[in-house]
Amino acid sequence: TISRALNYPNKVNIKTLKKINKIIDDNNYSINQTANFFKRGVSNNIFCFIPTLKGGNFTDYVSGMIFEAEKYKSKVVLEIYDYSLKKEEEILKSSLSFKPQGLILVGLEHTRNTNRLLQNLKIPIVETWDSSDKPIDKLVGFSHYRLGYDITNKMLRRYKNILWVKSNYSKAKGDYIRGEKKFIGYKDRIKKEKKKVHTININSLDFLTSGKEIINFIRRNPIIDCVICDEICALGAIHEANLLKIKIPNQIAIVGVGNSHTVQLSSPKLTTVDINAYEIGRKAVSQIFNFDNNIVTDTGYNIINGESA
Question: For residue range 180-200, what is the model confidence (pLDDT) as tens digits?
């Protein structure tokens, strides 16, 4: 009877159920979920591996996952691998003992061992934050190449010498391909105009340091009239420019990629690209449950006109 009360309360007499629930409350009893998971062979946990929680985009991404997971009475377990693909491999191996309901990954790049392991798993796997015709299982994201190409194309209507900022942090850790795809999109569009490619590598996860590096580079290279970088760098550049009384966008235009809630605090308001991070997270969870049976879901992106460019 107690087992039915815990697992199938609708099958227990109301009077008996109330009595059992009172005893449960008085004793602060809770079900051993781990034992339950092993009995069923699967948990209600969705494991998500993300490179960082710095910056607003991954925060919005996680919010979307949590919102959608509640519909299915599932829980999202976050594992942060700090852009290290080797660390991602180690975390993946340890997480499998918890019998996950599904896996959500950021990006398409993994170690050889991780790819081999993922190919042999019999649970739903959703890769996110990129585009491909041949995902491991399912994919939710957007084309970084097209984003880099499109935002550069828009800025070329007003600016002649555009600087593209790359991350030396993610490159040093090994997980930098998504940023490289955006850069190639930028480079292809610049070369189409037969203009010079301008680029620097900075620590993109520290907005104060990155902002100083960007503005210092521009002061040494006054030919630059526009800079495109990720959201953290863009906010840092605006902050540094404001400190130095550099007029935005008259003296330098600044464009970011992200459009998280943090962007609303920038002054002037940042011109950016909304990558639909919340929707990526929400769709990723829904694909665990075969929401629409799409192998690849393109969430796209939108260029948001602000005051900084």
Answer: 999 999 999 999 999 999 999
Amino acid at 210: S
78, 48 in Cβ contact below 8 A? yes
> What percentage of the chain has pLDDT greater than the value 90?
73
Per DSSP, the residues of 146-203 read: HHHHHHHHHHTTT-SSEEEEEEHHHHHHB--HHHHHHHHHHHHHHHHTTPPPEEEEE-
Q: Which two tokens stand for residue 250?
A: 């008259």
Residue written as token pair 């991602």: 88
Interior angle at CA 80, CA 75 and CA 81, nearest 5: 140
SS3 annotation, 50-103: ECCCCCHHHHHHHHHHHHHHHHCCCEEEEEECCCEHHHHHHHHHHHHHHCCCEE
Confirm if 60 and 117 have CB atoms less than 8 A apart. Answer: no
Q: Taking residues 279-299, what's their average pLDDT?
A: 90
Return the exposure string of 210-246: e unless at least 16 CB atoms fall within 10 Å of the residue's CB, then b: bbbbbbebbeeeeebbbbbbbbbbbbbbbbbbbeeeb
Cα–Cα nearest to 81, from 118, 115, 51, 46: 51
